[in-house]
Amino acid sequence: MFDNLTDRLEDAFKKLKGQGRITDVNIATTVKEIRRALVDADVNYKIAKDFTDRVKEKALGEKVIKAVSPGQLMVKIVQDELAELMGGESADFNIKGEPAVVLLSGLQGSGKTTFAAKLANYLKTKKSKQVLLVACDVYRPAAIDQLHVLGDQIGVEVFSDKESKDAVTIAKQGIAHAKSNGFNQVIIDTAGRLAIDETLMNEISSIKQAVRPQETLFVVDAMTGQDAVNTAKAFNERLDYEGVVLTKLDGDTRGGAALSIKYTVGKPIKFVSRGEKMDTLDIFYPERMAQRILGMGDVVSLVEKAQEQYDEEKARKLQKKISKNKFDFNDFLDQLGQIRKMGNIKDLLGMIPGMGKQIRDLDIDDAQFSKIEAIILSMTPEERENPELLNGSRRKRLAKGSGNTITEVNQFVKQFDQMRKMMKQMTKMGGMAKAMRGMPGLKR
Amino acid sequence: MGIFDRFTRQNDEQEQKKLEEGLEKTRTSFFGKINRLVRGKDTVDAEVLDQLEEILVTSDVGVETTLDIIEHVEERVASDQYVSTKELNRLIRDEIAKLMLEDAPERPADFDAPLPTKPYVIMVVGVNGVGKTTTIGKLAHHYKNAGKKVILGAADTFRAAAVDQLTIWSERVGVDIVKKDMGSDPASVAFETVQAAVAADADLCIVDTAGRLHNKVNLMNELTKIKKVMSKVHPDAPHEVLLVLDASTGQNALEQAKQFTKATEVTALALTKLDGTAKGGVVLGIADQFKIPIKYIGIGERMEDLQVFNREAFVDALFSGATV
């Protein structure tokens, strides 16, 4: 029941394995299976049907090819169609304007306020914009406070008027404030609303007319079910938004809503948001998403994440140290920190092709790493620099200090030792990346 | 007619009407479709069943539960030899009612009913943005109106301004709140809330927790800890672990129910935002696959719009006006 889309598709394809060619008969169950898999992944039923019809048509048309197995052929067809459904290239995000204005819309609890702050952080740090957040959620208790707290965290000013209940005026004042204070980017957070709530839908239309945003975004929870299509449509009819933001993608949702929305309203998904930390915002790449859904991993995102954390100068120093066999616990702690900065270990591994299915039941929660960290942090500075110092009584102290058993400490020290030797050999071949593979903690 | 004659309505008429209004979207789309489906047909054939599958699935009922329902309908059609489309509506209603009423609690929870113990501790859990804090505010309102002394605990010390949000609710409703600074240990807030409830001789204490996605191991462990800590003040606390689910969530709701139950032994569900979705069908899926009763439903923005869930009334509301 809770298999994800990839698993379900794998099962569906299995039924085709061993069959000589794709025929009307043997494809029927597979197609039905694919459709149910998609629906189980919250893809809208009609769209899933449409999709499988297309897949079927293509598959039957290609039955003449004998070189590949029907299963492989189906995988390819599904993958191609899925990528097409998700939309071709990734969409641009317009930040031109004096100031450029982004207006956020969506249902209650979809994650607008958190996204507002993440987007502000992104535009500030990656696009060097002078960002002003404007708090127009005048209904939900403490929504304005929430934006202020987040604004403080990321060092972005928040414009608000706690006395006013007039969101349109606040938005206008916000723009005026931006203009007279040198902000070139404004992000307007609004209250969550239902598409059937006439009063509030009128309010957000008025805000849009008043501030003429470059980008109006529809923020939607990736876990949304069949209704995603209707909501997306209803908001689009009123706001004609430029794009969609998919939030909470760090959950284990199968994300079918993304497919449905793209298909129905034809608007691109511009950002995906995965987590509560301020730097967990990604541009949406349709192909990557399609690949990810099919269990092909998301290597490109992984590489980009790694690059962001990579400090060339540091790496060179480290390499020198390794080659002299001087790699110590401090360096190790540093490396650990860098990996963790890239995000949740499980998320990262999930991006590696073929890993999707295996790691789901695996408990490499970050606790493993915390254990190692605790051991290192229980060492004296001297011990950290000279791993050789760790004799029996010191290890006993470390075990006590870090809340581990002595066996665990021994194991870690041993692994560290092996790794150190291995790394030294590796430097001749070059590359930290390879060495990292032998790192303790990544075992099952 | 059917199994519905056995039911006596426990809600007063006004509440029933509100429920019907709240479910308007689901009802008109779900049963309107069924009505259109059977119109102009003489018998229940494969095509009708296919369309029934579509209707159920597009209402978020879920593939598994849908197939269950269809299988049952098929069996009935087979055993009765001939089933006219006129009877289909009743048949489906029967099947859904059966689903919903299986392992129903003996009687629905009631705000007025005396609580089994004092203080009765409710711990509220759920993923981000489902409406935990709002639900707590509304619960406090109802229980206070029913003459109970309520204390809230702001153990969501993580999300920005979550404590402020609950504080505003406590002021609005007029109940006490236990809170600490943002970032403090949520377990300690929970502990002190229960302590305060005991000291103040409160009837009820409701503890808010930070929203978390159910696949984050560390955060789920934290929840287990918060729960455990409360039992140190009061051996059986929390007496109720309430999982809040957003009705517009798709099949992931089932996974949420599963994972939160694993971490905290969820004892009751609250389904929010039912007024906003045409797809309340997720209720059916959950009723089918979990033994956890749905205790509260949210059908609107106002404080009164949180109701004690009554399965009989819910099915009645779904079907009212939906005759062929």
SSE series of chain B: HHHHHEHEHEHEHEHEHEEH
**CATH architecture annotation of the largest domain in chain A:** 3-Layer(aba) Sandwich
The CATH topology assignment of the largest domain in chain A is Rossmann fold
- Output mean pLDDT of chain B: 81
pLDDT averaged residue by residue of chain A: 79
Strand percentage of chain A, roughly?
5-15%
At the first level of CATH, the class of the largest domain in chain B is Alpha Beta
Q: Quick one: overall form of chain B?
A: elongated
H/E series of chain A: HHHHEHEHEHEHEHEHEEHHHHHHHHHHH
Uncertain segments of chain A of ≥5 residues (pLDDT<50)? 430-444
How is the quaternary structure best described?
heterodimer
Biggest β-sheet: strands ordered side by side in the sheet of chain A: 3-2-4-1-5-6-7-8
Low-confidence stretches of chain B: 1-11
Give the total of beta strands of chain B. 8
Supply the number of structural domains of chain B. 2
Per CATH, the superfamily of the largest domain in chain B is: P-loop containing nucleotide triphosphate hydrolases
Relevant terms:
heterodimer; A: 444 residues; alpha/beta; Four Helix Bundle (Hemerythrin (Met), subunit A); Rossmann fold; 434 Repressor (Amino-terminal Domain); 8 strands; 9% strand; disordered C terminus; B: 324 residues; 2 domains; 12 helices
Question: Can you give a write-up of this model?
Answer:
The complex is a heterodimer of chains A (444) and B (324). By secondary structure, chain A is of the alpha/beta class. Chain A has helices at 5-14, 24-40, 45-61, 70-85, 112-127, 143-154, 167-180, 198-211, 228-239, 256-265, 286-293, 299-309, 312-323, 329-341, 345-350, 356-360, 367-377, 381-385, 392-402, 406-429, 432-436, and strands spanning 100-106, 131-136, 157-159, 185-190, 215-221, 243-247, 269-273, 281-283. Chain A has an eight-stranded mixed beta sheet with strand order 3-2-4-1-5-6-7-8, with helices on both faces. Chain A is flat and about 75 Å long. The two termini of chain A are 25 Å apart. Mean pLDDT of chain A is 79; it is low at 430-444. Chain B has 324 residues and is of the alpha/beta class. Chain B has two domains: 3-101, Four Helix Bundle (Hemerythrin (Met), subunit A); 120-308, Rossmann fold. In chain B, β6 (268-272), α11 (282-289) and β7 form a beta-alpha-beta unit. Chain B starts with 12 loop residues before the first helix and ends in a 5-residue tail after the last helix. Chains A and B meet through α2, α3, α6 and α9 of A and α3, α7 and α10 of B.
